[in-house]
Amino acid sequence: MAQPATRARCVVVVGCQWGDEGKGKIVDVLARDVDMVARYQGGANAGHTVHVGDEEFILHQIPSGVLHPGKRCLLGNGVVLDLIQFFQEYDELVRRGVEVDGRVGVCRRAQLLLPYHRMLDQAREEGSSPEEKIGTTGRGIGPAYEDKVGRRGIRVADVTDGPRFQALLDRGMERARDVLGDGGADLERLVSESLQLRPRLQEVSTDVGREITDALGAGRRVLLEGAQGTALDLDHGTYPFVTSSNTTAAAGAVGTGIGPGLLDSVLGVVKAYTTRVGNGPLPTEFDDEMGEHIRSLGGEFGATTGRARRCGWFDAVLVRYSARVNGLTGLAVTKLDVLDTLPEIQVAVKYRTPHGDVDEFPADTLSLEETEPVLERLPGWESSTADARSLEDLPANARRYLDRIQELAETPVEMISVGTRRSQIIQVA
Hints:
Elements: E1 10-15, H1 23-31, E2 36-39, E3 48-52, E4 55-59, E5 72-75, E6 80-82, H2 83-95, E7 104-107, E8 111-113, H3 115-126, H4 141-149, H5 162-180, H6 187-195, H7 198-204, E9 205-206, H8 208-217, E10 222-225, H9 251-254, E11 265-271, E12 274-276, H10 288-298, E13 310-312, E14 314-315, H11 316-326, E15 330-334, E16 344-353, E17 356-358, H12 365-369, E18 372-379, H13 396-409, E19 413-417, E20 425-427
């Protein structure tokens, strides 16, 4: 039987909606009791916000565990590394008094995200018709993964071989110029700035899979941190409105270079309601007035782009699907406090389609856009949960709501967040 995330030897933390579920805080809380934290996919398109005392940290690539002294923090082979963004983040942590040197490592098998990837991403999105726009962050993630899959990418290990690295870089820049034309005027300068960081990159490069395997063999505890969410997974999400990597829990092993048998527990993070950024279906989306109300209560603006998030009721159909494809052993429910003032709360238990009601998340994104949620109404609690530190401290209707979530998701709730601070957490298991 799987252990709760708070006691598991190797736990994967995965988002179970469309990203922005609050994984950063959950990872930060769990990181206190582990020895090593590793990111397994994505890049600088992620934005994990963590509050420590009166300070707010927004981390895009370095794992949230870096805010705990002495924790080893790694970026796995499944990550695409934006050199400039990574070292800006690294240096900003140092400036703010966080000890980073010797604690952060990047896998030699990870792919580099270079300035031309970002320029290609932005040019492609700007040139798309409204129907074709994916709503990307413009951080170059898609083009970088395309180069990886096309076997023309540049890996961290390549920086040690000057001639090979230069040949790969020249070919990448030539391909970018063919697409960008006059729009690539700054390409040489931006790439040159990026390349100045090569010596620093070599200093932090490591074999992440070996480090994690050795740590687990020595009895240490490891946490694997995903970015985005299940509904943005390249295979299992609302394709084509998805990211360019596998965000689900199985990628925790693939993206760090360890065997899947080493994974002990999978904790799925969900908001007490649903949000998404960018285009694509959101079956439980609120009308404009309610959407603005929840957006204001929850501060629903993207940590990476600043874009307003679309908001809707909790979608149990999606979360039950996420529980299945991730093999969830537990749930962490965040932002419960955002619902404190509502007299009534609704939950989507099925989808209504032209062919009847369904309780399974569909593979066909177009059909998902044509569904209507079948909503179950639950009484709100209309009192603050911010000071609750145990289930018994929560209002009765808040406990009933959580009971219904775990019943519909067929997964036990292990953690509940009732605010942005580290202390505002309820650990059930």
